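Appendix B, example 12.
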Amino acid sequence: MDENRPPYRLHAPGAVSVPSYELPAYRDAPRPRRRLRVDEHEIRPEIERREMVDGEVMQTFPAELPHAVQNGDLDYLLRAHLAPGYRVATDLATRHDLKNDFASDSAVVREGTDPDTGSRYREELAFEVVSKQTKASVTRKAPTMLKRGVHRVFAVFVKKRQVAEWVPEAGIKEKGRWVELAADAKISHSSLAEPMPVAAILDAASAD
């Protein structure tokens, strides 16, 4: 060993000459988002008269006669038009996302279990009956249902005797408007064995 030779010195690169790199903290690393099951509720169905819409928890109320009769006629009509493998569900609670846990008045649902989630299938058609309920309240729900995967969302406005469908604007499900359906129009969907007349939704005699 040469005692006159200067010792080796190892220095980390200077911060000025070499750029530094920082690994993201573990808490900042992206994590896979678990998809909520449609039956994974925040509100307890059949125990609590509540629902959650856009994070707001509100009380739900029993229906008065006009609403209740229209809902019954609608279910009757839907059952008559179902394709094989589908069922009509009344007041079916669905967990749409973290901030939304509410029920539609009537819905068409595929029978069986969804193999991707291990729970029931999400509804494919959803109907809201609007009597004393405000149009604004049902409008809050429609985009959320479409975003969850419901194929089509309808509203039956009892006092105005109108049926309307929520139509997204330019394919954006968060925004849209209610489009009134003509009385002689028919609702077609793969869950229905044959198209369902709009006039029959508003007229019990036509439904028969």
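Residues 65-81 form the longest helix (17 residues). Residues 15-32 have pLDDT under 50 and may be disordered.
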